[in-house]
Design a protein that fits this description.
alpha/beta; Rossmann fold; Endonuclease, Chain A; 2 domains; 7-stranded mixed β-sheet; 4-stranded parallel β-sheet; 9 helices; 11 strands
């Protein structure tokens, strides 16, 4: 889940390679291409500069459609060296990539991209879901790509509340929400967060008002004044627990509670799973 592949921008042989490569990555697939160096897309486009106008337009359209496939990673890059030399050096020192793919016959015997696209041979596992420890850190790691691509994120959990029945804080969920707000802040893109409240759990305006006060306190704790908070009271009978946006979404099978002794199955939603959420909420 959330594997980051290092792919040599010079490795796609043609537009067909590019199209199939991009289809393998993104939020709905749970795996991503490293934007390494930071102008990786520019280097990729340069590969196709000699094509005709129609094919260059196809390349631009493919990259526009698949904007959620690349995740920026930090790491030194020397322009005097080839991409593969830089990537292998970074992998040896910092292990930034889950897997590396380059051009045929490279000096490091890194698998060529075409072996992934047309043969596979077990080079790509299912990246959509995983059983992860029920901790704030693991929840944030899972959701980080969603915040990286989304300006507004929604949380749905019919059982979610920040206080116990006696009125005391539920510190587990308090910390989870603080973690998500911190991810929104670090993403430099997400500036809105909406929480869908259950009518059954929040039957009165006083309970809703208290919840709003609490989420504003959490926002202040993470020092993110620019985060717009909102809530909706839903009467939809939905039992799933989700974190989602128009870009993609995650389902947390056991909600957002924490317990380091247990694991939670979390998976990226396919397009067919995401569409009903977007149509409903």
């Amino acid at each position: 889940m959330n594997e980051i592949f290092g792919i040599d921008p010079s490795s796609p042989s043609d537009v067909k390679d590019l199209k199939y490569m991009l289809n393998l990555f993104g939020l709905s697939n749970g795996r991503f291409i490293a934007a390494y160096p930071h102008d990786w897309e520019y280097l990729l486009r340069s590969k196709f500069n000699d094509l005709g106008d129609v094919d260059r337009a196809r390349v631009s359209r493919l990259l526009e459609i698949h904007k959620d496939v690349t995740l920026r990673i930090d790491g030194g890059y020397r322009r005097s060296k080839d991409w593969i030399d830089n990537a292998v050096e970074l992998q040896q020192t910092e292990k930034k990539f889950s897997k590396l793919f380059s051009v045929e016959g490279n000096p490091y015997r890194i698998p060529p991209l075409q072996s992934l696209l047309w043969n596979d041979d077990g080079l790509m596992s299912d990246g959509r879901g995983a059983h992860i420890p029920m901790t704030v850190e693991n929840y944030c790691d899972a959701a980080r790509p969603l915040f990286a691509f989304s300006s507004e994120v929604h949380l749905i959990d019919p059982y979610f509340a920040l206080r116990r029945e006696n009125g005391d804080r539920d510190h587990r969920r308090w910390k989870v929400l603080a973690g998500f707000f911190s991810e929104a802040k670090m993403s430099e893109r997400c500036d809105s967060f909406c929480i869908h409240l259950s009518e059954q759990k929040f039957p009165t305006q006083n309970l809703i008002d208290k919840f709003v006060e609490d989420i504003e306190l959490i926002r202040d704790e993470v020092n993110f004044e620019g985060l717009n908070l909102s809530y909706l009271v839903d009467d939809e009978k939905i039992h799933g627990r989700y974190l989602f946006s128009v870009k993609g979404g995650l389902q947390f099978d056991h909600g957002f509670d924490t317990d380091f002794r247990k694991k939670n199955h979390v998976h990226w939603l396919s397009i067919n799973e995401l569409e009903p959420l977007l149509n409903t909420f």
